[in-house]
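Friendly challenge for the regulars: who can give me the structure tokens for this chain first? No prize, just bragging rights.
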Amino acid sequence: MIKHKTAAISLAIFVAITALTGCTAMSKGKTRPHRVEPIDAPKNLVFSRDRAIAYRVAGKAGTVIRDVEFSTRPLISRDVKAPAGFAIYEQSGENYIAVAHQQRGDRLIADVIAGRTYIIAPALTGHLRVSLLALCRLTIEEPRRPAADIPRICTQILCGSQPFLAGSLVDRFGSLPEGMSPSLELGGWDPIPRDLCEACTRPGGGSDDPPTISLVCPAAPAPECDGQVLFNDDFESDSVGSAPASSPAGPPPGDAVSTSGNVTVVNAASRAVRLSRSSQPAVFEGIFGSGATDTGSYCVRFVGQSGVDMREPVIMTFNAANSASAWQLVIDDNEAVLTSGGVRFILLRDFTVPRSFRFDVNLDLKRFDMFVDGTQVVSNMPFLDTSFDVPSDVRFETGRCILECFTAEYTLDDVRVTKTN
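First reply, four minutes later:
Bragging rights claimed.
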């Protein structure tokens, strides 16, 4: 197992907040900005970077305020260049929990509660995200856990020089957090982040008091697409260099693949298909087997990777038998634009590395949530076309050549669609 360099994840204890002037939140539909007040963050906050902003939302305590906008522009730096690299955390007791938000340009939008404190900060990623998620679940989500155990758990997960598997949490602390794979690797910092560990061991109000810790807790990754399988293809049974088989191996019966243009099976991290635009568009269409209806909930998942210097995007749609689309997702090398219900959301991110996408679809309400790499980026989005009836296929297509045919290449893997209820 590999030790995780603290230089790579820039571990630190967040001890100060930069008070920014002119940063306001706009409540949708209002003519004046909704007031948010910069405040100091708690000095015992266990966090990964020293760049963040804390706010208290003005208004009558407990009032829900819809669509409040927070600017990320003052936080963008050489380390975190895009607003997609930030998250919103809401104070919950002594701790801070990630809340669902949407992105519009350089702003994050969320429903907030007046009187509560929020932190806008870099999103927790990679090994740190997994370790803090385990720590939060063991200490916050288990109400029977004695408060005195929290510093001990914090110390073992965040201060150990040797990595260990999550499965050993059962022996260490009596339980494995629900939904957490026992094969995940935790701990193992080299060198040990002394400042971070001091937050786990620093006394509270008195010298004999246990430490008082405020944790920043990342959002849990989206679960796999369970339920009745309508389409599933991982391309492992296909021949490299050829087009994918028209009938994917394994269940469900009746699902099919249709392609046109330059679509071939390649060896990536595993076998995958690559769409390469040439003199004509490249199209991959996953056609569902039996079982879809015009009601209920559905899950759509795939892993995709854009080519470097991609001059034309790939377009992904989830379609119905009546040719209506629930959304349109346009992806190039550093940007994804989601169009749905008259609204466009821009996700700035490096898409030249593999990214997992997941959509949770409520056909009864004609709305959906979207996740990227397990983090929710939009919620409760209306369909692009509300006439959408029975789901029929998922489609990936490079744009059509008009005057010139610029480069467009996209690698696709693990395409799965299920009916969840």
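The radius of gyration is 23 Å. The longest strand covers residues 409-419. Your move, everyone else.
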